Amino acid sequence: MSSRLNPYLVFPGTARHAMEFYRGVFGGDLVLNTFGETGAAAPGQEDGIMHAQLETPAGYTLMASDVPPGMELSGGSDISISLSGDDADELRGYFTKLADGGSVTMPLEKQMWGDEFGMCVDPFGVQWMVNIAQPGA
């Protein structure tokens, strides 16, 4: 198997809702494992998501969890997840769905390099960049 880079997002108790949202955006198969299933959950944390994995029809893998009991959400680096390709309808659809309930920080429109590009923040605070390559690029 070749190497893959998969985004792994950590949420403050909203991983289930976030991953269900992403399944609505991208489609695919979502597997959710809770802290309670491990038998080691702190009281009240049984339904928290220990690990979630979404495998999409487009070949994307998105993983996530809630902050584990006893740990703090670090805030980490300020990153964006980038989607790119030449299937304009698919990518425009993703952009629209990701921004729904969130915010558009840069409208999806033609840029000086010739592609369509836009940025948004989804309802869970994750930043997304979408680049649609022009035919023949």
| Total of domains | 2
- How much helical structure, as a percent, in the residues? 10-25%
Mean pLDDT: 91
Which fold does the CATH topology of the largest domain refer to?
A: 2,3-Dihydroxybiphenyl 1,2-Dioxygenase, domain 1
Structural class, by secondary structure, is alpha/beta
What is the topology, as strand order, of the major beta sheet?
1-4-3-2
Task: Name the CATH superfamily classification of the largest domain.
Answer: 2,3-Dihydroxybiphenyl 1,2-Dioxygenase, domain 1
Low-confidence runs: none
* Beta-strand proportion: 35-45%
Annotation field: number of helices:
3
Order of helices and strands: EHEHEEEHEEE
Q: Sum up the overall morphology in one term.
A: elongated
The end-to-end span amounts to 29 Å
Number of strands: 8
As a whole number of angstroms, the C-alpha radius of gyration is 17 Å
Summarize the main sheet: 4 strands, mixed
CATH class of the largest domain: Alpha Beta
Task: Describe this structure as you would to a colleague.
There is one protein chain. The protein is of the alpha/beta class and 137 residues long. The chain has two domains: 8-66, 2,3-Dihydroxybiphenyl 1,2-Dioxygenase, domain 1; 80-132, 2,3-Dihydroxybiphenyl 1,2-Dioxygenase, domain 1, CATH 3.10.180. Helix content is 20%, strand content 36%. It has three helices and eight strands, in the order βαβαβββαβββ. It has helices at residues 15-26, 35-38, 88-99; strands at 8-11, 29-34, 49-55, 61-66, 80-85, 103-110, 116-121, 127-132. The strands form two sheets. The chain has a four-stranded mixed sheet with strand order 1-4-3-2. Strands 5-8-7-6 form a four-stranded mixed sheet, with helices on one face. Strand 3 and strand 4 (61-66) form a beta hairpin. Helix 1 packs antiparallel against helix 3. It is elongated. The mean pLDDT is 91.
